[in-house]
Amino acid sequence: MKKEVATLAGGCFWGMEDIIRNIPGVLNTTVGYTGGLIENPNYSIVKLGTSNHAESVEVEFDASKITYSELLNFFFKMHDPTTINQQGNDKGTQYRSVIFFHNEEQKITALEMIKKVDASGKWPRPIVTQVIPASKFYPAEEYHQDYLKKNPGGYTCHWLRN
User: Model-level pTM?
Assistant: First the structure.
């Protein structure tokens, strides 16, 4: 097993986690907050959109079963990477599209994937996904973890597009 970590933000973390955890090769998912200005944020702070944290999913995966590039391919199918600070009805900086890279290889792969997706013409507008260094990840409150598994009828604006 070749264990690696990816940190992705693409709107509400509930829907992203619900899709990502079912991808073959994914070992574990944790929803949380990263990329912000304050330490130890919580949902009450992040939901205001003033801390600059993004609702994110930290993904542990077996790189011998799924590559980082393949994981990013799912990422670009599960949310609209052309909307700034918005996914569906969710609006604010906490819902922006971001790839938080953990090393130079992930950065290069992310930038290449954005070019590829942009060139594909799949989206009618340019990709606005940010690619920035990973910073401290703060796990969200327990009731957010596996939320849609615990609440199958809960809200999500994520689905896999072709």
Answer: 0.96
| 3-150 homologous superfamily | Peptide methionine sulphoxide reductase MsrA (3.30.1060.10)
Is residue 157 part of the annotated active site? The answer reads no
User: Is residue 129 exposed (0-12), middle (13-18) or buried (19+ Cβ within 10 Å)?
Assistant: buried
98 forms bridges with which residues in the sheet? Answer: 9, 130
Residues β-bridged to residue 97? 10
Q: In the chain, what is the straight-line distance between the N-terminal and C-terminal CA atoms, in Å?
A: 29
The pLDDT tens digits of the residues spanning 96-135 come to: 999 999 999 999 999 999 999 999 999 999 999 999 999 9
pLDDT tens-digit readout, 34-92? 999 999 999 999 999 999 999 999 999 999 999 999 999 999 999 999 999 999 999 99
Q: Catalytic residue, from 6, 8, 9, 12: name it.
A: 12
